[in-house]
Amino acid sequence: MAQIIATVATLLLLLASVLVVHFARREAAEIRRSTSDETHATREEARDLLSEAQRREERVAQRERDFASDHRAAQMYARALDERAAVIARDEKRLHVERGEIDRVRERRLAEIGGLTPAEAREELMAQQVKQARDAASGELRRIERATKESAEQRAREILVSAMQRQAARVASETSTTWIDLPSEEMKGRIIGREGRNIRAFESLTGVNVMVEDGVNAVQLSSFDVERREIAEVTLRDLVEDGRIQPQRVEAAYARAVADTEQRHLDAGLDAIDAAGVRGIPHEMVAVLGRLRLRSSYGQNVLAHLVESAQIAADIATALGADVELARHAAFLHDIGKAFTHEREGTHAAIGAALAAEHGEPPSVVNAIAAHHDEVPQTTLEGVIVQVADAVSASRPGARREDVDGYLERMEGLERLVAEHEGVVKVLAMAAGREVRVVVEPDAVDDDGTRELARTIAQHISRDFSFAGEIKVTVIRELRADAVAG
Q: What does pTM read for this prediction?
């Protein structure tokens, strides 16, 4: 039994060996076949590459042959050109000799006809030729000047039109009234107060007329003085927001509005700087610029005019290749002197230039400010651009109204006339100049003196101030006594 098992095991071992050898041979045959295929593919690829290389060599050889042929043709063409140039040079030399001979013959004939020597004939001929050349040059120069002038004018119009078209500024025209919306009709009654005491206190304190109309959920503030009107607007908005309106609160709101004036100037100046895209404005000049929001020139708001002028100047400078930032900066500051025209002597251009110099602005900016009304000559191209931008902004349709400034001057003149009287502390021209309220010092004018002063002022106005209609003069004498407990 053991022998049978051993025999079977031997047979199985032999069978396994045979199978291993069979599979090994088959795998080797497979590898040889795969290797042969790869070798064949490689040979085919090598033959393709060799064929492509041969074709490229043939193309390169053909290009070299073409280049050699073109080079030979170019050399032949160059030789032909040289020969042609030599022929032309010989012809020119021959023509020059012939022209000289013709000139000499002409000179002899002219000398014979005119009885002149050849030298004199040459001089006369040369003088005639010089005169003809000068006349021709003068005509050509005039033609060039006209063409240049027309071209310059056309280019200038194109630049100005382009600069104006880029501006989408609103028509900012100052008026003498301001509307304030109210939350309800009941607020009108609070503003008027019992027997009108609130509205009287408000008008006496601010110098601004308050007009209340039925059917309109708003009140209107009227005054020729934009500063008074602005303070009155802030005061009334504060009172409306609080809702509790009485004479004492009117005084408190008015005091807050006056105290916050500088901050409003500063905020307005910063907003204008951002709108104009200007950098490097000294901090001390920001509040001064903000004051211009309450100034107008022929009805045009001065601060809005500065912003618009800066933008126009930048556009023109870009078109002309000038210093854009310098033009923008100078145009933004060119009317800053109008903030002090009522306080300092001189024109606003001179005042503005001095102010800019005081705060370290460069000479080019100072000159542009001083020269924008031709009071001094411009020293830079940017100064001329500032003058042009100022004129463009001021002359656009709807920008200015001459009657506004005339009205303001008339009201200010009326107040100055009344303020000349002794004992007068405050003068308020109201109702478009139809009423003048005069606040007097109680220690200087007594009750009887108020009536006499009212008559005197009325006579003075009638005599020295021209006006249409009637002007009511109201003299107010108010005595207050304050004390602090505690």
A: 0.50
* Distance in angstroms (rounded) separating the CA atoms of residues 158 and 394: 19
Note the Cα 398 to chain centre separation in Å: 19
Q: Using one digit for the tens of pLDDT, what is the confidence trace for 266-304?
A: 888 888 888 888 888 888 888 888 888 877 776 678 888
Other C-beta atoms closer than 10 Å to the C-beta of 160 total 18
Side chain identity at 89, as an amino acid letter? A
396 — phi, psi (to 5°)? -65, 150
Tokens of residue 245, six digits = 């309106």
What is the 3 state secondary structure string of 318-387? HHHCCCHHHHHHHHHHCCHHHHHCCCCCCCHHHHHHHHHHHCCCCHHHHHHHHCCCCCCCCCCHHHHHHH
DSSP assignment of 19-30 equals HHHHHHHHHHHH
Of the candidates 268, 178, 191, 180, the residue with the CA atom closest to the CA atom of residue 224:
178
Which tens digits make up the pLDDT trace of 323-369?
889 989 998 988 888 888 667 788 888 898 999 899 889 999 999 99
